[in-house]
Design brief:
2 strands; mainly alpha; two-stranded antiparallel sheet
């Protein structure tokens, strides 16, 4: 957050041309996507490890506050992808940098042009949920969000503890290594990461665009608790549980196989690895920019990014590859009934019958 504030402050003070503004927007959108990535990997893992928590997390996302954030997230991803391609092209063709101002405007225009129909599609899901279905009465919105947050406080505290531990370990690492030595400015390792950012950036674009299309446009966050089918699969979402739930959506998606090949587990694994490595290496660049004056702080920033990235890869990978049991659906159903009650909606008769049979 300090680096974000410093970027904004110095940008407003400097008041540069379009090139500077595109650099700032690229940096801000990148950091924003990384922050979302942390939340997304952790809460999606709950669909496997803590099904009831995942149901409640999705309920919180189906609220106006998070709805606005979803639109911002999609903008951040699309702009960052397009501007990243611009940077890659100019890096390999330095002579084109004289056209960077026009290219920056082109990137912004292309982003807005693509997002126009995307936002219309997303808005359709929002209107259906809030207006047509009247899913959440105005006086119940805050209840749902607060309930979801309170239920997850132990895990939020646990995640903060992980961050604190990462800081301590990173600080210890820097002390053991010694704070006086300077890293080589053009080491083989840094050349590798420079190349990796370009190659991974190109590889990520089609993967993340497919993911955004399926999870935010074709079936957004409002559909995963009501969809009869899961986009990209042949499975019927209503065939496992008594009523569609967020956990059931994930279950169908990750158990869908074609010719014995788990399509979306594999897809999500490659997306997870590339995005985490790309995102946290980018965050490393940002943090080291603002800690270059202090070798101890710079080393701590590097170690922190490394540790958190490793934790996310471990948690996300475990969620993708542990065997999925149908009992996660059973646990999710009780939490789904709680959400119906909080929203002031009538619990479906099929769900009530299911819960009665289970008890």
């Amino acid at each position: 957050m300090t680096s974000l504030a410093l970027t904004v402050k110095e940008t407003l003070r400097y008041r540069g041309a379009i090139g500077q503004w595109s650099w700032v927007l690229h940096r801000l959108t990148g950091v924003g996507v990384v922050l979302f990535l942390v939340l997304h990997v952790i809460d999606t893992s709950w669909a496997v490890f803590y099904p009831s928590l995942y149901v409640k997390a999705i309920a919180a996302y189906q609220s106006p506050i998070f709805t606005i954030g979803e639109f911002g997230l999609v903008f951040a991803v699309v702009y960052h992808a397009f501007n990243g391609i611009r940077i890659i092209i100019f890096d390999y063709k330095p002579a084109l940098w004289r056209h960077q101002s026009r290219a920056a405007l082109f990137v912004l225009g292309a982003t807005l042009l693509l997002l126009a129909p995307v936002f219309v599609g997303m808005a359709g899901h929002v209107i259906d949920f809030y207006v047509t279905e009247a899913a959440i009465a105005g006086d119940h919105v805050l209840d749902v969000v607060l309930f979801s947050i309170i239920e997850q406080l132990p895990f939020i505290a646990g995640f903060l503890a992980v961050l604190a531990a990462a800081v301590v370990l990173a600080a210890a690492f820097t002390l053991l290594r010694g704070a006086g030595r300077k890293a080589a400015q053009s080491s083989a390792v840094e050349r590798f990461w420079w190349a990796f950012m370009r190659v991974s950036g190109i590889a990520i674009v089609p993967l993340v665009f497919v993911h955004l299309a399926l999870m935010h446009v074709v079936q957004g966050v409002f559909d995963i608790t009501a969809a009869g089918e899961v986009a990209g699969t042949l499975a019927n979402n209503g065939s496992i549980g008594a009523a569609p739930s967020a956990v059931e959506f994930v279950y169908h998606r990750w158990t869908f196989a074609a010719g014995g090949f788990f399509v979306w587990r594999t897809f999500d694994f490659f997306l997870l690895v590339l995005v985490v490595l790309h995102g946290f290496n980018g965050l490393r660049y940002v943090l080291t920019d603002y800690t270059s004056f202090n070798d101890f702080a710079r080393r701590t920033s590097v170690a922190l990014c490394t540790i958190v990235a490793a934790v996310l890869l471990a948690v996300g990978g475990a969620a993708l590859f542990v065997p999925l049991e149908e009992n996660i659906i059973h646990e999710a159903m009780a939490a789904t009934a709680e959400i119906y009650e909080l929203r002031g909606e009538e619990i479906p008769a099929s769900l009530e019958a299911y819960l009665s049979d289970e008890s």
